[in-house]
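Hi there. Long-time user, first ticket. I'm pasting a complex I've been working with (about 744 residues overall). I'd like to know whether the download I got is complete or cut off, because the file seemed smaller than I expected. Thanks.
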Amino acid sequence: MPTTSTATLEELAEREYEWGFVTDIEQETLPPGLDESVVRWISAKKGEPEWLLDWRLKAFRHWQTMKEPTWHNLRYTPIDYQSIIYYAAPKSKDDGPKSLDEVDPEILETYEKLGIPLREQEILAGVAVDAVFDSVSVATTFKEKLFEAGVIFCPFSEAVKEHPELVRKYLGSVVPYSDNFFVTLNSAVFSDGSFVYIPKGVRCPMELSTYFRINALNTGQFERTLIIADEGASVSYLEGCTAPMRDENQLHAAVVELVAHKDAKIKYSTVQNWYPGDKETGKGGIYNFVTKRGICAGDNSKISWTQVETGSAITWKYPSVILKGDNSIGEFYSVALTKGFQQADTGTKMIHIGKNTKSTIISKGISAGRGQNTYRGQVKINKGADGARNYSQCDSMLIGDRCGAHTFPYIEVRNPTARMEHEASTSKIGEDQLFYCQSRGIALEDAVSMIVNGFCKEVFRELPMEFAVEAQKLLEINLEGSVG
Amino acid sequence: MLEIKNLHVSIDETEILKGIDLSIKPGQVHAVMGPNGSGKSTLAQVLAGREEYEVTEGSVEFLGEDLLELDPEMRAREGIFLAFQYPVEIPGVSNTYFLKAALNAIRKHRGEEQVDAVDFLALVRDKMAMVKMDETLLHRPVNEGFSGGEKKRNEIFHMAVLEPKLAVLDETDSGLDIDALRIVADGVNSLRAQERGFLVITHYQRLLEYIVPDFVHVLVDGRIVRSGGKELALELEDKGYSWLENAAAATPAAAAPVGA
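Hi, the file is complete. Here it is re-exported in full:
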C-alpha cells in the first residue's frame, strides 16, 4: 500500500526532526577511508571558516607522517584507519531498536540496577521515542539560567560559529594538533563536542552534566571538548554516564582541553562505561584513546580530574595538568576497573613550572577476570618550580589470579627544593577480609563490593554527590560474579 | 546447642584435628586450652566456616542443623560468632557501616526489620560503653590503625551488637595487657546468659581467671586429651603442657607434636 508507506515515511521524517539531529545537514554519509578530501568535506559540511579548515589540514598532513604509538602496555588488533567512516549522518531511527523489548536484556538489567528512569533508559538505548523532548526542555531551562550568568555552554560546532574568537584563541593551545597520533587524527576529523566558557569572576551556577549529554549523545567518535575558566571563575563539569550506551564506533579518539586562568578552578569528572566487549572473548569492545590535558595558566588556579573508568575494551588515557601559574594546584583521582578481557593503561602527568605548585595523584586500579590494569604517570618538576610538591599514591587490587596490575611511575626533578612522596601498593582482595565479613553475616558479593568501595573511597569522595552514588553502584554491578 | 562428633580436619593434606568430641549446652562456657600448633585456632575457623580447612570425618550439629553444610555467612546469621585472633583491617569501610550491614543481614535472616543509621547509633551506644570503646573508633575504617587492644575490644563490641547464640573467642587474650584483658573479660561476662553458649580458646590460664569457665578441655596434637572443671586450668598452669603432651605422645596413633 503505497499511501500508507508514504505516510509512515513522512511521520518518520518528522520525528527525525524532533530528535534535533539534523538541522542544516543533509542526510549523507561518506564512504570509509581518509584522505584530504574527507577533511575538506567535513569542514565544508560544518560551514567552518578558512582558518579552521587550514588547521584541520595541517593536522591531517602531519598525521600522515606519524605512527601509532606502541609504548603502552596494551594489546589489540591493529586499527585499519581506511576502513573507518569519518562522517556519518545521524542514524535513522529505523536502525535502532523499536522499543526496550528489543534491547539486550543485560543492558536493561544494568539500567534497572542503576535506577535510571524508563524514559532515559529508552534514550540511552537508542530507542526511537519522542521522550527526548522532555530532556530538551529541561536543558532549555538550564540554558537560560546559564545565559543569565554569562556562561557559554554549547556544542563545539556552534561555538565555532557564535564565538570564533574564543575558539580560535584556545583551540590547540593546551593540546597542540601535533601532540600525538590520536590527537592529530582527532584534530583533522573531529566531529563535534562541547564548548564551555566561564567569564571573569563567575561561579558556574550548576554542574554541567548528564542532562545535556543526552542531547549530545551522538557527537561521535572524534569528540572535542574545550573548557575555559577566566580569572576567578569556577566550574564543575561531568562527562559521561554510568549507563552503558549504544555505540557502533569501535575507535574513540577524543581530545579535552582545559584552561584555568588566575584564581580559576575547573573540576572535571568522568564516568566511562562503554561496551567492554564480549565477556568470554573480549570481541567488539570500544578502543578508547583519549588525550585530556589542562593548563593552570594563571597564579592560584586549580584543575582537578576525577575519573571512574569501568568500560571499554582498551582505555588509553592520561589526564594531565600543566602547572604554569605560581601556587597552582593539579589533582588526579582515578578508579580504573578491568574485568573480562579489558585492558587499561591510564594515569596522569603533572608538569610543575610555576613556584609552589602542588599536585596530588591518587590512582586505584582494580583487576578482575583476565583484566590488565596499568598505571602510568609522570611527575616533572622544572628548574624554576621552587617549592613544588607532589604526592602520589597508586594502589592496585587484584581479584582472582588471572588478572594483572602494573605500575610505571616516572619522576623527573630538576629543582632541589621539590618535595615528592610516592606510595604504591598491590593487594589481592584478601581471603581474610572476605571471610571476616562473611563471619559477621555479610554475603560474599556484598563483601566484595564493600571492600572494593572502601578501596576506592578516596576517589569517590571527590565525585559530585549523585555521581558518587552511581559510581559505587556501577562498581557493584561490574563486580558481580567476580569472586566465588 | 553445639554437638561436635569425631571431627577430623585437614589442611593441604595435613591432618590437624584428629577426632574431636565436644558438646556445648546453652548457658555454658567451655574453655579449650592447648599449646601452639595443637589445633585450637583450626577448631575455631572450622566452626566459623573457613574454606581452606577440609573436614574429612565426623559431624558438627548446631541447634540440630548440620553446621558444615552452611556457608560462613549463614552460620553467622544462624547465631555463631567468631572473635578473631587477628581481626582483619578493611580500609575505607567505616566500622559503623560494616557493623550495620552485618546486623541488618542477620536481622533480615531472622525476618526482623532493618535498622537505619539513627536507630543503629542509639542501639550501639551502651554496647560501646560496655567495652569502654571510644566513639571515634566507630567512624574509623574497620580495625585500620587500631591498637592491638582496640582490635580485640572491637571484636567484643561486634559480638555485643550482633548478640550471637554461640560465641567462639579465638585467643582473645593474646597481646592484651592486664587492663585491656579485664575490659574484654568484663564485656564477655556481661554477655553471659542462659541461652548463650561460649567457646573460649586460649593458650594461657590467665584469661580464665576473669572468664570463669564451666568446663576446660585440653587440646594436644589435634585431640582433646583431658576434660574437667575450671580447676583443670589451674593444674595445667602449675604443671605445664608437657605434662599432657607426654600423655598424648604415649598413645599409639599420635604423630610428633607440631611446633612448640
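A couple of notes from our side: Confidence is low (pLDDT under 50) at residues 252-260 of chain B. Residues 100 and 120 of chain B are 7 Å apart (CA to CA).
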